[in-house]
Amino acid sequence: MDMSIQHKAVNIEAQEAEKSNQLIQKFANKFFRLWPWLIVSAVLGVGLAYCYLRISFPAYKIHASVLVQDDNKSTDLGEASILRDFGLMGKSNVDNEAEIFKSRSLMEQVVRDMRLNVSYYSEGKVKNTETYGGRPVDFRFLVPSTDTSDIKTQYVLQFNKSSITNFTLTNNEQEYKGHLGDTIQLPEGPAVVTPAAGYAKWQYETPLTIAVVPVDAATQKYLASLKVEIPNKQVSVIYLTLSDIIPAKGEAILNQLIAAYMQANVTDKNRIADSTIQFIQERLRLVFGELNDIEKDIERFKTDNKLTDLTAQSGLLLQNTSEYAKQQTGQEVQLSVVQALEQFLKDNLNNARVVPSSLVMQDANFIALVQRYNETQMQRDRMLMSLTASHPSVITTEEQLSNLRIELLSSIASVKKGIEVSVSELKKRTAGMESTITTIPAKERTFLDYSRQQAIKQELYLFLLKKMEETAISKSATIASARVIDRAKSDPSPFKPSKTMILFVGLMGGLVLPFAISFGKDMINTKVASMEDIVNNTTIPVLAEIGHNNANQVVAVTMNSRQLIAEQFRSLRTNLQYLIPNKLEKTILITSSMSGEGKSFLSINLAATLALANKKVILLELDLRKPKISENLGLQKTGFTNYIISEGADWRTMIQGAGQQINFDVFASGPLPPNPTELLMLPKVTQLMEELKASYDYIIIDSPPAGMVTDAEIMASYANLTIYVVRHHYTYRQQIRLVEKLYHKQTLPRINIVVNDVDIRKGHYGYGYGYGYGSYHAES
């Protein structure tokens, strides 16, 4: 039992090895058949790759890095930092700044500042090349940039030969003449062309193409080529990478992007100072008007009452009340400021503005609240540069601002109440003092009231002026919270296209293409193209392979023939002798699936090959519907039909020799009968076959195709062996499956397949028939 299992395992391994060898042999045959095409295709592929490299533009990577001050990381507790690292909290400051670098608004500002929507190309022999630093002119429209954002056009500038300061712009065969520095009217609007840095070195006979694209398109182009990375979350360094075909241009764009970011950062920081200065200026205008009104009232009062010097009269009163007045003035100044801040916070129009914190210095809690409010306000503004107002982070920040405003108003109310209480107390004390000097005239008291109001307004006015100067000084010292580590610098060599990779792809594509085409043809081919097509569709053994008849001879096998096809027929003869060693088994039926598969050619040459072995052979032309043998051999058509339908006819008188061939007779088909099938079923046919077996060593029957009529099945009762002809690149694979059905039904006796018309130029696929006959490919 174990030996049987081992034997089966060995057989399976042998079959697998045989399949692998067949696949290798098939691939090798296909390679040797396609090698001329492989060379041509490889050369063509490399040539196309070279042409692609010739017309493509190399792209360079430009790198820069910026260090961002991350305030959040310096103030967060350890737990918050850990949560942020796991993505459970909002983005850190460096993440937000990275989003700003990728924002469309920042890149659009760079495009507008550098006019990147206008490109210049010089004409070359193979391709037009973009120029940057060496372009001869600058082109721009004179209308505002917002009015030219959607313009898409192209002009070709050609300098005049007579005067290089004159030029012609061409667009859609329309020409516009102009002079450098002068306004030229174009369909899109007035424009001007001015000399640039490369004007003196420009080859003036070379046309210059000026391409204008919409600002949005240019912005999107450069945003797509920009890469912003934060490789290490532990440090707040942002790495910027931009790809461009002109290194100098890419470096300029990246440096300008960083500069625009820095300026936006400083502008964002100065918003607090700007808001404070605006608030103080509004208060100064109001206080100045009130102070001016009081001074006019004093002037009018003195004029109306003819008063000149009231100092001596009110000296004692001022001396006694000066201390209270001074305290009351200070408190009222603070009360005025607090009231103004309260009004500022209650106005919904100021919800998006920062609160000036330097006006109230006495209350540390209030200053701390204002600082928190302003930081939250700026954080929301940064979020809105990369997020929408409906984002959860923005909504959370809005809620924080609302809560902080409530706290600010509550704090202001508390401070205000304290100041009001203090003012009220001071007023009571002042009233007490005034009640003791009832002897002072009413005019003196009125003048004293004016003087006190004037002192209050003057104190407030000077206080506001001082705060405005302090804020302005603070604003002038503002710097961006980022620092450039490495300015933009291009790589020395382009990163695409890779010459080695493109040439390699071209070479491999050229090598693969012939195989792909060949295998593709094999896949869509429905005809027999290889031995696998036969083996995979039938279990019928393949008896032999017959090559293509290059000489187009009817009889390819003669006594002295040494062609490959003759040797293949001799090999077929040898195989037949092994299949039918019994001398009583003389009859061979030859059929096929359809007309044109070489059945008659195989019948003639098999008979001739047997005859050369000193065997007496007769070939029966029983394809009564389409007889070809007698016509191909140049014989008379009198034969089988005449014998069957004639009473007393002798078949021996109708036998014809096959030309110069010895021992090779032919029994022609005779006239075409109206009922070939019924004719073959007559008892006289049986008598004829018995007599032929007694007279000949081999009887070869050329019958009609088995897949079309039943004649072959009728004659099969007289045959000992059936040769089924399959023609290379002619017989359909589906017909092989039909032969398999006949094989299992045993309708035809002992079926064997012979593959005909094998073209060795299209790849040999068989079992090795014909090997060793290389010297016989031509007549000796």
Automatic annotation (TrEMBL):
<keyword id="KW-1003">Cell membrane</keyword>
<feature type="transmembrane region" description="Helical">
    <location>
        <begin position="34"/>
        <end position="53"/>
    </location>
</feature>
<dbReference type="Pfam" id="PF02706">
    <property type="entry name" value="Wzz"/>
</dbReference>
<comment type="similarity">
    <text>Belongs to the etk/wzc family.</text>
</comment>
<dbReference type="InterPro" id="IPR050445">
    <property type="entry name" value="Bact_polysacc_biosynth/exp"/>
</dbReference>
<dbReference type="InterPro" id="IPR005702">
    <property type="entry name" value="Wzc-like_C"/>
</dbReference>
<comment type="similarity">
    <text>Belongs to the CpsD/CapB family.</text>
</comment>
<keyword id="KW-0812">Transmembrane</keyword>
<feature type="domain" description="Tyrosine-protein kinase G-rich">
    <location>
        <begin position="445"/>
        <end position="522"/>
    </location>
</feature>
<keyword id="KW-0067">ATP-binding</keyword>
<keyword id="KW-0829">Tyrosine-protein kinase</keyword>
<dbReference type="GO" id="GO:0005524">
    <property type="term" value="F:ATP binding"/>
</dbReference>
<keyword id="KW-0808">Transferase</keyword>
<keyword id="KW-0997">Cell inner membrane</keyword>
<dbReference type="InterPro" id="IPR027417">
    <property type="entry name" value="P-loop_NTPase"/>
</dbReference>
<keyword id="KW-0472">Membrane</keyword>
<feature type="domain" description="Polysaccharide chain length determinant N-terminal">
    <location>
        <begin position="29"/>
        <end position="113"/>
    </location>
</feature>
<dbReference type="InterPro" id="IPR032807">
    <property type="entry name" value="GNVR"/>
</dbReference>
<dbReference type="Pfam" id="PF13807">
    <property type="entry name" value="GNVR"/>
</dbReference>
<protein>
    <recommendedName>
        <fullName>non-specific protein-tyrosine kinase</fullName>
        <ecNumber>2.7.10.2</ecNumber>
    </recommendedName>
</protein>
<feature type="domain" description="AAA">
    <location>
        <begin position="586"/>
        <end position="731"/>
    </location>
</feature>
<keyword id="KW-0547">Nucleotide-binding</keyword>
<dbReference type="GO" id="GO:0042802">
    <property type="term" value="F:identical protein binding"/>
</dbReference>
<dbReference type="InterPro" id="IPR025669">
    <property type="entry name" value="AAA_dom"/>
</dbReference>
<dbReference type="Pfam" id="PF13614">
    <property type="entry name" value="AAA_31"/>
</dbReference>
<dbReference type="GO" id="GO:0005886">
    <property type="term" value="C:plasma membrane"/>
</dbReference>
<keyword id="KW-1133">Transmembrane helix</keyword>
<dbReference type="InterPro" id="IPR003856">
    <property type="entry name" value="LPS_length_determ_N"/>
</dbReference>
<dbReference type="GO" id="GO:0004715">
    <property type="term" value="F:non-membrane spanning protein tyrosine kinase activity"/>
</dbReference>
<keyword id="KW-0418">Kinase</keyword>
